[in-house]
From TrEMBL:
Residues 1-23 form the signal peptide. Pfam families: Aldo_ket_red. Residues 60-351 form the NADP-dependent oxidoreductase domain. InterPro entries: NAD(P)_OxRdtase_dom_sf, NADP_OxRdtase_dom. Keywords: Signal. This is Aldo-keto reductase.
Length: 367
């Protein structure tokens, strides 16, 4: 029950008690009025709650940041996306700054027979309307659509408070039909709440969240739950660290890491911030034990852990980045995996041995 409805019920109850104390009775007309009033308040509250909730996001979104990292063929990239669509993955994440990613998805849309959803981004430090309009126009052209399904807004430097103005340009584009929904990207709790209080109708916030990086638990999940937002989470397998490949392996040297993928280099700092390599091995062994029970890989269990955390809080999606279709079967398994209380407890016991999450969303990356 909403606040308005609750206060209304309290007021009517006080009136009724006053009448009873005075030995008076409600007439049938008054009873009918009270019942009608209470029903109206209940209906208004239901509308209020419904307004705060956005439609559930797809459980898994396919990330298209590194589509050409292994194979520089755009045709091969489209075939990868087709393979994922055939397996039931029809939502894809991209950005205006991801090189040719948007245009590859546009070609994919032209070739694909069936509904697709594309989540793109507006990544900027320019609060001008002209910039928002220009980037929107280019994204629509690249994706070959009249309206962008979802635009996630990323602002580099919060010391410049013009991010509210920049976000409102997206709201204006939404009003004009050029954007379906507006979301945030890498916003911490403080600045996310500022956007919401300014009237920006956000439906989600894209954040980094994994067993090795639990910073969303330091405020953003609580805020999202309170304000009716969902989270879309990337880095759920920590760029490949949370995988069977590293179970029982010696810790890579700094030189080894520097020769790895962009994702591997990026997420090593999250691993180091959580705990030493020996503790990481204990976590991998625990995930392997859970995976043995569920017939799943370590990576699939790690992804399922994030999905489970979202299911029990604000709701949302995981973003699984792809370069080709080599992990397709594993991604299908992760999507359908369900953890139980014993699995959660076993994983939590190891997590608690490491450092508690420090800072808020992207606090370490922003400097």
């Amino acid at each position: 029950m909403g606040v308005v409805a609750a206060l209304s019920v309290w007021f009517l109850l006080m009136v009724w008690l006053a009448h009873m104390a005075a030995g008076q009775r409600f007439s049938p007309q008054r009873v009918a009025f009270v019942c009608t009033f209470l029903y109206a308040m209940h209906y208004a509250t239901a509308l209020e709650i419904e307004e705060k909730r956005c439609a559930p996001l797809p459980r898994v979104v396919i990330g298209c940041w590194q589509l050409l990292e292994r194979d520089n063929s755009r045709d091969a990239a489209v075939r990868t996306l087709e393979a994922y669509a055939a397996a039931g993955f029809t939502a894809f994440d991209t950005a205006d700054i991801y090189g040719p990613s948007e245009s590859i998805l546009g070609a994919f849309r032209e070739a694909h027979d069936g509904p697709l959803t594309f989540h793109t981004k507006y990544v900027t430090q320019d609060s001008s309307k002209a910039n928002a309009v220009a980037v929107n126009k280019q994204s629509r052209k690249s994706l070959r659509v009249e309206s962008l399904d979802l635009v996630q807004f990323h602002w580099w430097d919060f010391s410049d408070g013009a991010y509210v103005e920049a976000a409102k340009h997206l709201v204006d584009l939404r009003t004009k039909g050029f954007i379906g929904e507006v979301a945030a990207c890498n916003f911490d709790a403080k600045h996310l709440e500022t956007l919401l209080d300014a009237g920006v109708p956000l439906v989600a916030n894209q954040v980094q969240y994994s067993l090795l990086d639990r910073r969303p638990e330091n405020g953003v999940i609580a805020l999202a739950t309170k304000r009716g937002l969902q989270l879309t989470c990337f880095g759920t397998a920590a760029g490949g660290w949370l995988s069977d490949k590293y179970l029982g392996a010696p810790e890579p040297t700094r030189s080894d890491v520097s020769k790895g993928t962009v994702s591997l280099r990026m997420y090593k700092s999250s691993l180091d911030a959580w705990g030493p390599w020996s503790l990481f091995q204990e976590l991998l062994k625990t995930l392997r034990a859970v995976g043995d029970e569920l017939d799943a890989s370590i990576a699939a269990v790690a992804v399922a852990w994030v999905l489970d955390a979202l299911d029990r809080s604000c709701g949302g999606s995981v973003i699984l980045g792809v370069r080709d279709a080599s992990h397709l079967d594993d991604h299908v398994r992760a999507r359908d995996l369900a953890l139980d209380d014993m699995h959660r407890a076993a994983i939590r016991a190891v997590l608690d041995k490491g450092a508690a999450p420090r800072g808020d969303i992207w606090s370490r990356e922003r400097g």
